[in-house]
Write a structure and sequence with these properties.
The protein is built from 5 helices and 8 strands, in the order αβαβββββαβαβα. By secondary structure, the protein is an alpha/beta fold. A hairpin with a 4-residue loop joins β4 and β5. α1 runs antiparallel to α5. The chain is elongated. The two termini are about 25 Å apart.
């Protein structure tokens, strides 16, 4: 009755179903792993934001670590407004504007880049004329560590006081010193005329939904195969009965 399963057509169908089921299962596992990783990353961010502030020079003493993103740090020094940079095309809630990055020279002589906040600007990405000035004299700020951009050199090298993305490794000539890795998104004190950083995105994205969807497709392929087999058997039974004649 099941001899038809070893015909070339059915063998081909079986191979296709197995490949499809395995592929969908693997893709589901990949999406599930991404969901788990996102949850783990969010837990680190939440802990970093809630942690006690620590001096930025101490936190970055051993260099950058991905787990340091959103670590709450403090920095004490003097703003170097003469080397202030604005980040072009920094849209916020659909509105055009720029991010204002001002180097802070720490009391020990090191330099850290401070994102003082966002301000609305022209759609062509240029900085507005009314960018609020940084504080004078010695200041102490608190903020969240942010990772440097991985954009190419053209986007991260200062030109005419602007960049497309922040990467202090490419600002050494402009600053006259190599800054600490990453930068600090200032959260306190509030900068008059500038909007502070948005809260970190702690969403997990659609990865779990995609995982379930891929696993559903995997199961559907297997179930579909057996439904085809059952349909074929039903079609063959009447033919077999018809071949049997009374003696």
């Amino acid at each position: 009755m099941l001899r038809f399963l070893v015909s070339p057509r059915w063998i081909g169908l079986a191979i296709f179903v197995v490949l499809m089921a395995v592929t969908c299962y693997v893709l589901g596992g990949w999406q599930y792993d991404r969901w788990e990783q996102r949850k783990a990353d969010n837990a680190i961010v939440e802990a970093n934001v809630a942690g006690d502030p620590a001096p930025v020079e101490d936190v970055l003493a051993d260099g950058w670590d991905p787990d340091l993103e959103y670590r709450t740090v403090t920095a004490t020094g003097t703003f170097d407004s003469s080397r202030e940079i604005t980040v072009r095309f920094a849209h916020r809630d659909g509105a055009p504007g720029v991010q204002v990055i001002t180097p802070l020279r720490l009391t020990d002589g090191q330099v850290v880049l401070i994102d003082r906040g966002w301000i609305a600007g022209p759609r062509d990405g240029t900085a507005p004329d009314d960018v609020p000035a940084a504080g004078q004299g010695r200041v102490t700020i608190t903020g969240w560590l942010q990772r440097a951009s991985t954009a190419d050199q053209a986007a991260t090298t200062p030109r005419d006081g602007q960049v497309r993305a922040v990467n202090g490794e490419r600002w050494t000539d402009f600053l006259g010193a190599e800054p600490l890795p990453g930068y600090v998104a200032l959260t306190s004190p509030e900068q008059e005329g500038l909007t502070g950083p948005p809260q970190p995105d702690l969403g997990t994205g659609p990865h779990l939904f995609y995982a379930i969807q891929w696993w559903f497709f995997s199961g559907l392929a297997v179930v579909g195969y057996f439904l085809f087999v059952r349909a074929e058997l039903r079609e063959r039974r009447p033919k077999a009965s018809a071949e049997v004649t009374p003696g």
